[in-house]
Amino acid sequence: MVLTGFFDNIMVAKIGHEELAAAGICNSIFFLISIFPMGVSMAYTTIIGLLVGKNRINSTHLLVRDSLYITIILSILCSLIIYYSIFHFDFFRQSIEVTQLSLPYLTLLMWSLTPMLLFFLAKNVCDGFSFTRGGMIITLTALVLNVFLNWVLIYGNLGFDAYGLNGAGYATIISRIFMAITMIALLFYSKQVPIHFKILKLVLSTKKHFRFFKQIWKLGFPTGLQYFFEIAAFAFAAIMAGWFGSKPLAAHQLAITLASLTYMFAGGIAAGSNICVAKAMGNRNNTNALNYGKAGHTLGFISMGIFAIAFFVFDYELAGMFSDDSEVIKMGASLLVLGAIFQLGDGLQAVSLGLLRGIEDVNKPSIVTFIAYWIFAIPVGYYLSHHSATTSFFYGVNGIWVGLAIGLTLSAIVLTYRFYALIRTK
Questions:
Q1: Residue 10 φ/ψ, nearest 5 degrees
Q2: CA dist., res. 289 & res. 273, Å (int)
Q3: Same structural domain for residues 194 and 254?
Q4: Nearest to 125 by CA among 51, 79, 53, 64
Q5: Are 4 and 142 members of one domain?
Q6: pTM higher than 0.85 for the full model?
Q7: Are 31 and 256 in contact (CB under 8 A)?
């Protein structure tokens, strides 16, 4: 999913830095709004893992039914919020050129929200049964489809008109519809997932009590807030970067695209650790849960350490992939050096959140993420970026990224400590 945004940004950047800036601000707004229902859907995986651990497979159809209702409700609400933000885009205080490019593109992203959330519903249910390969294959296939459609629709190849930035929006809609249809089909027809269409249809037609609404909301609401606080911080960081002009925003966008790409490796380790720990807790095996936690943190530390070195060593080369503008490349390379600093913190806090979700600890971690990002990261970033001398390293976008690094590091320390403290007392 993040690779899709990665290639979108590379291909859009070839048109110009203003298009890259518009893509960045629109995707920041889109994920700011959509990340909450995506976070809620993480609860589906955890609950299924617990049900499998307790050998309660028969209850999973009711869970899928309740999850479907919640997904549809959240999809409608979030689409309305995006629609509202389109008509009040001046609130984000972007340049006239970026605003003009953003409005139609954000509208296209809005139409891709529902199929994206339906994909995550089906994928997270499959993940709960430890069937993750199918989702991987579908997302990689959709990635190839999206890149091909970008090539056709952005640049006007194969006889099509060149739609520019909007071409990336059309490609996103088509690829996410493909993902939703194929993932739902896999959910019903895979032998590794005991969910059957006929049984689910029967369950949908009954008036049984919504058994899992409360449990989904109990786990999903704080999880959604965790992701919202983090993505909101990064979205606001993009908005602040835009206050300094389209070039600083373009530099921020290229750097955050690469940081988001590496973060997904830690996110994958967190998802796997969450499934394993949830099953271990369902079996009441604390020793296994502790060992899964250690393994998850070790994998996260190693992978993010490698990326940190890559960011530090190849800063200019990586920034040059996105732009030919020397000023944008220089600013982007500087941000990648700062990104290298917070790679370890970013990875450890992601894994720790997944582990804590596996032991059904979500409320206090939500408070931790709020404090880390909105009491430390954003205020510090704002202060440094606006109150440092214009010749200082901390002025402008660099100051914003220093604040983010501080917030991620604090979050990693507290959440990692909390997991080991809790698992030893259960």
A1: -65, -45
A2: 9
A3: no
A4: 64
A5: yes
A6: no
A7: no
Residue 227 maps to a domain: no
- How many structural domains are present in the chain? 2
Please give the residue range of the domain that contains residue 384.
244-426
Whole-Å CA distances, 386 to 136, 240, 380, 382, 383 = 42, 10, 10, 6, 5
Do residues 142 and 172 touch, judged by C-beta distance below 8 A?
no
pLDDT average, residue stretch 79-92? 91
Residue pointed to by tokens 């990261």? 377
Same domain, 160 and 293: no
List, as one string, the DSSP characters of 39-60.
Answer: HHHHHHHHHHHHHHHTT-GGGH
- What is the chain's length? 426
Residue 190: other Cβ atoms inside 10 A = 15
- pLDDT tens string 146-174: 999 999 999 999 999 999 999 999 999 99
Task: Kindly indicate the confidence band of residue 208, based on its pLDDT and cuts at 50, 70 and 90.
Answer: low
Are 40 and 153 members of one domain?
yes
How many Cβ atoms from other residues are within 10 Å of residue 55's Cβ? 9
The token duo for 172 is: 């996103």
Same domain, 86 and 137: yes
Considering the chain, what is the average pLDDT of its residues?
A: 89
Residue 14 lies in a domain: yes
Residue 159 has phi, psi (to 5 degrees) of 85, 0
Amino acid at 182: T
197 and 163 in one domain?
yes
Residue 235 lies in a domain: no
In terms of domains, do 75 and 173 share one?
A: yes
- Residue 136: partners with Cβ closer than 8 Å, 6 or more residues away: none
Domain assignment present for residue 35? The answer is yes
Same domain, yes or no: 214 and 299:
no
Question: To 10 degrees, the CA torsion angle through 376, 378, 380, 386?
Answer: -170
Band (pLDDT 50/70/90 cuts) for residue 221 is confident
Angle ∠(85,91,95) on CA atoms, nearest 5: 110
pLDDT in tens, 288-309: 889 999 999 999 999 999 999 9
Tokens at 61, concatenated: 């159809």
The one-letter code for the residue type at 211 is R
